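Bug #77: duplicate submission created two jobs. Keeping one. Sequence:
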Amino acid sequence: MKSAVLIAITIVLIATGCKTINPGEIGLKIVRGKLQPENYTQGRHRTGFGTHYVKFSTRIKELSVKLTLPTREGMEAKVDLTLLYHIKPEALRDIYLTLGTKYENELILNNFSAQARETCLNYGAMDLMMQRDSLEKSIFDNLTTDIGHYGFIIDQVLVRYIDVPDEIDRAIEKKVLSEQHVKQQEIEIQAQQRVTEATIEKERKEMEFAAEKKRLEKQSSIEQDRLQENYALEKQKLEAERSLIEAQSAKKAKDLENSTITTMSIKLKTVEVLQALANSPNTKIIITDGKTPLTLREPKE
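Kept job's structure:
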C-alpha cells in the first residue's frame, strides 16, 4: 500500500515537473526571474523549483474589428476589418522583453485601428466602396511599417464590409449606372468600328481583286496578241519556206527539162548528120560508141 502511494506521488511529481510545448508554439524558460537564452520548441521540457515557461503561438492569428471611420468629406463609414498576422520566431525574445505577453491589445489592435482611421481620411465615402483593394493595400503597407520592426509579419488586411450613408449609396448606384451606360456606348462604338473596318477591308479586297483581274486580263490580251503575232510570223516563215521549196522544185524541173532537151537535140542532130553523110557521094569512116558525138575522119588518098 505504501509502495503504491509512493509510486503515485512520484508520477504526480514527474508530471508536474514537466511543461508541454505544443506544435505551433515556442516557449521561453525563466529560471528564478532570469530569462534563459534558448527558445523551446514542441515537446515536454522539465521544470524545477523557481522555473516556469512562457508560451507564444507562432501560428497565423486573426484579429477582427468593427470601426466607424471618418472619410475625406467628413462623413462616417462603418467598416468591418480583419487582420491576419504572425510572430517571427527569431524575434520572440525581443517581443517578450519589450512588449510582454499582452502585445495584441496594446500594440497590434491599437495600431490597426489607428492606421485604418488615418487611411480612410484619404478616401471619399464613394471611394471606399469603389476602391476596396486600394484601401486594403494602404492599411497593409502602413501597418507593416508601424509594427513590422517589432518582429510581427502582417499577412493580410481584409475589408469585409463597408456601410456608408444612404446618399452615398444612391450616388454610387448612379455612378455605376453611368459607367455601365458609358461602357455600353464604348462597346457599341467598338462594334460599329469593327463593322466599318470589316467593310473597308472588304472593299479593299474587292478593289485589289478587280485590279488583279484587270491586270490578268490585260496580260492575257498581250499574251494573245503576242501569240497571234508569233503565229503570223511563223505562218509567213512557213509560206516563204514553201515558196522557196516550190521555186527550187520548179528550177530543178526546168533544169532537168533543159538537160533532157539538149541531149535529145544532140541525138537528133547526130541522126541528121548521119543521114547527110549517108547521102554524101564521098566515102566516110564513122567511129562512135553509140553514146558520144560522132568523130568523122576522111580516108587518105
